[in-house]
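Task: sequence design from structure.
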């Protein structure tokens, strides 16, 4: 099968039988659900762009398994050039959608598993890598979206998985059968949950031997028997149910997360990629996390949207020539490009692992994500500063269209006489959406906690820097003997 386009992707999702709940009700058709659909549109963009000649170089790659052209989201990185293209692809899609387009978690879990399964086999004499490559060939051949799922509920944070009062707070094996295993547990904050064909489970933390029942990784069709999705809600989500589109801000795209429950789900052996090798749980977590921290180039793409919106609103307000406005927009660009620098740098400084896969520089990937936990907040603060308070006091689209009061909204919210009031309202709604509404989930809170909360990166940074070398240089330059 060739690479899918957006329409084919949408049709492929219609064939899946997801078990999804939202607002306490079971959903039948999720593809057309007005609240979920924008997130499906965002994943569809990853399919559509792969067919556009101007994006082909970034969006596609040559499979190292078959030599065929594939969507880069299913590719195993074969060079640092591949890694750099991955960073650029993330920024591109972030800038085209203005939200989380969800497909990177699958790409990052596939790449991490290509390395970890190889390393487990080398140490334990298992056959996971062969299994994994067979699965990868299936994903590439069918151009599937995989949902990489790492975050367990975790229960009492002071306790290891096996010490929890409720053993299901980390995903674990409950039964071993001849033909496979039965698993129970849940994954939280799952981006792309109901827009993916497959779900790939990984452990969430390093483990010790006592936790070996929790050291599991596997893949399942996303609609496998026993999996239930409970959709998260977002600020302003029900605006998508209102008549009119303007108050949504982003008219086309959005991200969405879910709690995914595995209630005694069967996994055949050919889809199990780690089974009780507790000594590799930490490695898989670290490799997935480092790749995903690189992936946060997506936020520089969303930053492009917010900076563009801020420049527009400055012009619509007639304030674009004020020196402090110009300076604030320069600051926004500086921060946004610094975000991108981190993602590019960790890619360019990547290296080949024993499995053959190219892996990012982990120190720089963690620095990249640490910046992401901060700069989008400052960029948003500046956007709100420039937008003005109207962003949150603006009447609704229905009032704007009202035969009685619409004229007053039109008259009193006009600023630059050359710009229709409606354009000003639309742009303010986009900034509201990105910094306070449904898209703020992806641009702000996800920037903070996605791919690991800030402290996780600080621990990695402290582990990765060569402090002895730094001390040695300082001592040499100041004339202090090296061993004193
Ligand atoms: Fe991709 Fe960014 Fe969404 Fe993660 S947060 S899945 S990197 S778009
Ligand atoms: Fe994320």
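Answer:
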């Amino acid at each position: 099968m060739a690479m899918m386009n957006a329409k084919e992707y949408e049709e492929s999702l219609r064939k899946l039988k997801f078990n999804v709940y939202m607002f306490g009700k079971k959903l039948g058709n999720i593809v057309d659900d007005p609240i979920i659909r924008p997130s499906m549109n965002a994943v569809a963009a990853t399919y559509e762009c792969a067919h556009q000649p101007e994006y082909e170089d970034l969006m596609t790659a040559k499979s190292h398994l078959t030599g065929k052209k594939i969507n880069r989201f299913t590719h195993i990185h074969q060079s640092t050039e591949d890694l750099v293209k991955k960073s650029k692809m993330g920024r591109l899609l972030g800038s085209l959608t203005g939200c989380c387009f969800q497909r990177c978690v699958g790409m990052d879990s596939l790449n991490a598993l290509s390395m970890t399964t190889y390393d487990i086999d080398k140490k334990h004499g298992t056959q996971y890598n062969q299994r994994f490559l067979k699965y990868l060939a299936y994903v590439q051949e069918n151009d599937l979206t995989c949902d990489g799922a790492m975050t367990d509920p975790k229960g009492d944070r002071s306790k290891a998985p096996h010490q929890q009062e409720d053993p299901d707070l980390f995903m674990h094996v409950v039964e071993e059968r001849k033909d496979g295993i039965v698993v129970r547990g849940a994954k939280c904050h799952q981006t792309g949950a109901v827009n993916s064909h497959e779900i790939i489970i990984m452990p969430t933390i390093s483990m010790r031997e006592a936790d070996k029942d929790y050291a599991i990784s596997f893949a399942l069709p996303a609609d496998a028997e026993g999996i239930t999705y409970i959709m998260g809600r977002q600020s302003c989500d029900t605006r998508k149910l209102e008549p009119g589109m303007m108050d949504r801000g982003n008219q086309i795209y959005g991200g969405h997360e879910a709690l995914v429950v595995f209630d005694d789900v069967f996994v055949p052996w050919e889809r199990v990629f780690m089974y009780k090798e507790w000594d590799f749980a930490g490695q898989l977590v670290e490799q997935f996390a480092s790749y995903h921290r690189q992936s946060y180039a997506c936020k520089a793409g969303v930053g492009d949207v917010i900076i563009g919106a801020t420049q527009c609103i400055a012009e619509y307000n007639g304030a674009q020539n004020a020196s402090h406005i110009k300076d604030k927009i320069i600051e926004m660009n500086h921060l946004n490009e610094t975000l991108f620098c981190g993602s590019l740098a960790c890619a360019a400084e990547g290296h080949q692992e024993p499995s053959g896969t190219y892996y990012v520089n982990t120190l720089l990937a963690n620095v990249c994500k640490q910046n992401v936990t901060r700069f989008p907040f400052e960029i948003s603060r500046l956007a709100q500063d420039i937008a003005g308070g109207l962003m949150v006091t603006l009447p609704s689209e229905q009032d704007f269209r009202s035969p009685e009061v619409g004229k007053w909204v039109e008259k009193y919210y006009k600023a630059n006489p050359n710009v229709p009031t409606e354009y000003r309202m639309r742009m303010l709604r986009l900034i509201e959406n990105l910094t306070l509404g449904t898209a703020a989930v992806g641009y702000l809170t996800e920037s903070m906690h996605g791919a690991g909360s800030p402290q996780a990166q600080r621990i990695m940074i402290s582990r990765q820097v060569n402090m002895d070398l730094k001390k040695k240089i300082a001592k040499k330059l100041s004339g202090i003997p090296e061993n004193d």
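The chain has a mean pLDDT of 97.
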